[in-house]
Amino acid sequence: MASVVNPIRDRLQYSLGYLQGRSFALPRSLSELYGALVAKGTSLTASVLPFLSVLALPLYGGSTGTVNFVFFFLTWSALVISHDQLTLELYGTLLVRCFCFLLPALATLAFDIAVPKVSKSLKARGERQLPTRHGRDKLLAIVAVAVCNVLLEGFLQAGLELLFTRVLHLKSLVKVNSFVPLPWDIFTSLIQGLVIRGVLHYAIHRFVLHTNPSILRTWHLDWQHSVEHPFSLVAAYDHPVNHLLAVWLPTILPAVLFRWHVLTWYLFLTIASLEELLVFSGYSVLPSAIILPGMARRTEAHFDSVRKGDKAGNFGHLGLLDFLLRTACSSEGTIVDDVKDEAKERQLQERIEAAVQAAMAGMEDRKANNKVEDGQQDDTDQHQIPDEDSKAGAADDNDGSEEEGEPADRRPSAPPSRKYGRFCFW
Ligand SMILES: [Zn+2]
């Protein structure tokens, strides 16, 4: 009995002493509280700045790739040496989520509210898709829930890391060291991650949040599908349990399963965050010709199908699983249609470019012919030989193919006619 009680008593005494020691550090007056807050804020800012420099170096470095990489490596190594693993992982995660999803999503919402006339011209469905239609209270609720859900992701990740490393004494969820992973390793990890995330999100969204009756399904319909047309923040507007299950879990699971390097995790999270930001944005102008516009249309079709009470479809991110498993919404084209349209558009683009090149070549040839003609005219004027025989001779040299009375050098030369011939069928 004593062997059980004694360790518990020791642990309690240790915890009590620890808390007493910590309590002395707590502020006892308003000025001490102010000083503590300023010190904490300064330390947070000082920690964030090196992170931003690491994230920005590959994008904005003005030097060559090798120099950029060396700077990146040195900055990253300094960060790893000067911060503990948990801080690095969580600060980076929150920064990526804030700068690649939350802040741009809030900025687009502010833009939609501030200049609705401009915004509706950019929205795929015009005025109907403006978030202002939902009213101030609903918009505030969406903003609050989306911000809380993003912060919740960070807290949960921190909790899991603490559980794994401090309680269970296992390895951390992701690797944090001064090495930088090789590009091929990053590429294969990203592909693995996208496949796992896509399959898991599709399965949870389809079977847990839509098909099978449950409280989670009710929450999903009452929260996220209460929004008529999606805009960026709606990607994180769902019941927290649903958000963690359908959005956060599929994203973090591949990183934990394969114990990625934290830089690979940052990159994967950046891709996932930008995808959510753009696919839910509702804007018709997106920085991609084929994938993102199709994904955005299918997301809108998913909201339409639920709102109209039709059979719900388009559960996946990319649309490939919906196409293969026949759950695509009939009102919207599948990913295969997108690929076909893109192929047609590219063919058309190539033809236009070739036609422009041929037209320019024809113009240059015409200029050259005119110069030659002018030169010959000068020679004729100089020599004053208005001889009928010479004209006949010139006609004979042209095998009699030209029209009567037309000088040989006014015919289009052979190369341009071949180039134009290529486009005649078009
Ligand atoms: Zn849904």
TrEMBL record:
Annotated localization: Membrane
Q: Does the keyword Acyltransferase apply?
A: no
Q: Which InterPro entries match?
A: Fatty_acid_hydroxylase, Sterol_Desaturase_Related
Q: Which UniProt keywords apply?
A: Membrane, Transmembrane, Transmembrane helix
Stretches the record annotates as Disordered:
365-426
**Record-linked Pfam families:** FA_hydroxylase
Transmembrane found in the keyword field:
yes
| Location, primary (coarse class) | membrane
> Where does this protein have compositionally biased stretches of type Basic and acidic residues?
365-391
Protein name per UniProt: Fatty acid hydroxylase domain-containing protein
Comp. bias regions, Acidic residues: 396-406
Query: TM spans, by residue?
Result: 94-118, 139-160
